[in-house]
Amino acid sequence: MDNRIVINEVGPRDGFQNVDEFIDTRVKLAIIDGLVAAGLQRIQITSFVSPKAVPQMRDAQEVARSCLARYPGVSFYALVPNLKGAEIAESCGISEVSYVASVSESHNLANVKRSVTQSIEELGTILARHPKLKVILDVATAFGCPVEGEISDDQVSRYIDKAAGVGVTRFTLCDTVGVANPRLVRERVGRLIRDYPDFEFRVHIHDTRNMGMVNTLTAVECGVRDVEVAIGGLGGCPFAQGASGNTSTEDFVYMANAMGYETGIDFDKLLATAKYAQAHINGNFSGHQIMITRDCKVQ
User: Fold this and answer.
1) Which of 34, 41, 77, 106 can pair with 273 through a Cys bridge, CB separation 3.0 to 4.6 Å?
2) CATH top-level class for 6-291?
3) What number of other Cβ atoms are within 10 A of residue 176's Cβ?
4) ∠ at Cα 18 (117, 285), nearest 5°?
C-alpha cells in the first residue's frame, strides 16, 4: 500500500472562520508562510462567502491573490458556498474549490438554507459554467447529523450517486460534529472505496469527542490518502458549542511521521507555526503538541 499521506491544511479557512475577533491579514499570511515553509503543499486559504455572513473572510480576495503570487507551486484552494463564490474564486486565480452540501436534509436546510437537491443542482451549474475549476464536494454529516441522528450507508450512497449525476468525482467525507467512531469510519469508508473505485475520497474529521486522531488514522488504514486537518486544532462547530473542532495538523503529522508514513512535512517548523498562531490569535486551540513548552519561531 502507498505509504504517503497528503496533508490538506484547512486552518486558514475552517479554523480562522470560527474566531470572532478579526485576524489581521498580515498574521494570516505569516501563518500561511510558516505552513509552506514546513512543507505543506495543499492549503485551504479562505472562503468566498458574504462578509456579512462571515466577517472573518472579508479579506478573502487579498489573501488569495497574495498567496498565489508568492507561492505559484503550492496548491491553494478555497471554499465556495454558491455560484457567486465560485465566480469570485476563479477571478482571483483560484483553480480548486470545495463546495459543501449535507447528506442530511435537515442539516442542509439549517446550514445553507436549501434542500440537498437544490445544493447539488447548483453544484452542477458551477461545473458546467466553470469547467476549468477543480471541484471537490464536502459531504457534510457523512457520519451523523446533529438534527436527524444516525446517517445510514444507503443515505450516503444515494447522495454520492446524485452528485455523480452532475459530474462530481471527488468527495471529502466530513464528520461535521464529531460523532464518528473507528468502527463506523472503517465500515463506511471501506464500503465507499469498494463501491466507487473510480472516485477520490478524503476525510475531514472533527475532534469533538477526542476521536479525531483515531478516526482519521482509521480512514488512512482503509486506503484514504488525503486528509484535512487544521493548525493547532483550531476550529469549532456551531452545533457543539464549547467542543474542540478540527483534528490538529501537528498532532496528526507527529503521529504519521512516527509511524513511518511519508508526509513531506517538517514537524519542528509546523509546530513553530502553530505556536505563532496561538500567540497571535484569540481562538480555541485544542492541539496537544502545541502545549509542549519550547521556544519556537516561524521559519
Assistant:
1) 34
2) alpha beta
3) 29
4) 130
